[in-house]
TrEMBL record:
Biological-process GO terms, alphabetical: ubiquitin-dependent protein catabolic process
Main location as per UniProt: cytoplasm
UniProt KW keywords: Cytoplasm, Nucleus, Signalosome
Superkingdom of this protein's organism: Eukaryota
GO cellular component: COP9 signalosome; cytoplasm
Protein name: COP9 signalosome complex subunit 3
Residue ranges occupied by any PCI domain in the UniProt entry: 213-353
Recorded coiled-coil stretches: none
């Protein structure tokens, strides 16, 4: 093993035994470049460290290893990388890795990026869920890894584990700046994964047809204070419009808590969806279908055509219910008249009996 790596291992062992984790993290940050130069020898380093006792040292080695795993042979190495990550998450010391929350998050994001398009994706759900359990301080605390769990669950179309997290209302948010200090890049990443959690969460609730909860998640996403509108918020707004139509039969207004920039630009950038809402308001099935066909390229590009078709179906159901109620009322009135009853309500009472 190269002398630089030997120094790394000795430093990790010494500082871990002394419990100087905060100082250790500062030194480990400076060691990333050194570790990167010896990428091919990192497996040897891992063999000399204990995943539980030397969690911080192992964390940084894995970070560098995953960061360099974008080679053409990544698919061949993926099972090994998967098992390494799984072993680390299972054995690592939660108290130690909380001294480097941002690095822990980065590793989890890299893992998600590697497996999200791979058949191992479905197996990664429980591993990422365990990564959340390891780092969070309570069940109602949101971490940026929550978004990873939702993303993997959507890709695998397996929602049970993600829903067990989504169903718990968030009361506190763990941010990277708590450890590293305020940094604009950290704040941007915190905001990104906060929005992704509510966007992906809304998609999961939509997939299981829990439209009330889906609407709430999309609403949180688009009403989060922001100086500029992000792509995530725009996509959430499009789904917010569609779920509003399915659930309430109309496009709900943007929450007042949304910033003026969001309110000003959201609607023009989602014009096709408002055209659909306007057509829905006419209660005319044919007009709604005309708009759907006219804007089909937009809906398909946004991957929202399935949801748009549910909007069309919801109008059919709404119109059938309205017509059924009308004709039922007429027939009940006729029954009341023929039976010499006081009114349709009394006739309905007899019919229900």
């Amino acid at each position: 093993m190269a002398s630089a790596l030997e120094n790394y291992v000795n430093n990790v062992r010494t500082k871990s035994s002394e419990g100087n984790f905060r100082i250790m993290v500062e030194q480990l940050n400076d060691s990333v470049e050194v570790l990167s130069r010896y990428w091919e020898l990192l497996d040897n380093v891992l063999e000399t460290l204990d995943f539980q006792q030397h969690s911080l040292g192992v964390l940084y080695v894995l970070l560098v290893k995953f960061n360099g795993a974008s080679s053409p042979n990544v698919n061949a190495n993926l099972p090994q990388m998967f098992n390494l990550y799984k072993e680390f998450i299972s054995q690592c010391n939660g108290e130690q890795v909380r001294y480097a929350t941002y690095t822990y998050y980065d590793l989890c994001h890299m893992f998600t990026s590697l497996i999200v398009e791979h058949p191992l994706c479905i197996q990664g759900i429980k591993v990422v869920a365990q990564a959340i359990e390891k780092i969070r301080l309570c069940d109602s605390q949101q971490t940026s890894i929550h978004a990873d769990l939702c993303q993997i669950s959507l890709k695998a179309r397996c929602f049970k584990t993600a829903l067990s997290f989504l169903d718990v209302d968030i009361t506190t948010i763990a941010t990277t700046s708590e450890v590293r200090g305020q940094n604009s890049n950290d704040a941007n990443n915190d905001a990104k994964y906060f929005l992704l959690y509510y966007y992906y969460g809304g998609m999961i609730y939509t997939a299981v047809k829990n439209f009330d909860r889906a609407l709430y998640f999309f609403e949180v996403c688009i009403s989060t204070p922001a100086a500029a509108m992000s792509h995530i918020m725009l996509e959430a707004y499009k789904k917010f419009v569609l779920v509003s139509l399915i659930l309430h039969g109309k496009v709900l207004p943007i929450p007042k808590s949304s910033g003026p920039v969001i309110s000003r630009f959201m609607k023009p950038l989602a014009q096709a969806y408002h055209d659909l809402g306007n057509a829905y308001a006419t209660s005319t099935n044919e007009e709604l279908r005309i708009v759907m066909n006219k804007c089909s390229e937009t809906f398909i590009r946004d991957k929202n055509m399935g949801l748009v078709k549910q909007v069309v179906t919801s109008l059919y159901k709404k119109n059938i219910q309205r017509l059924t109620k009308t004709f039922l009322t007429l027939s009940l009135s006729d029954v009341a008249s023929r039976a010499q009853l006081n009114d349709a309500a009394e006739a309905e009472k007899y019919i229900l009996i």
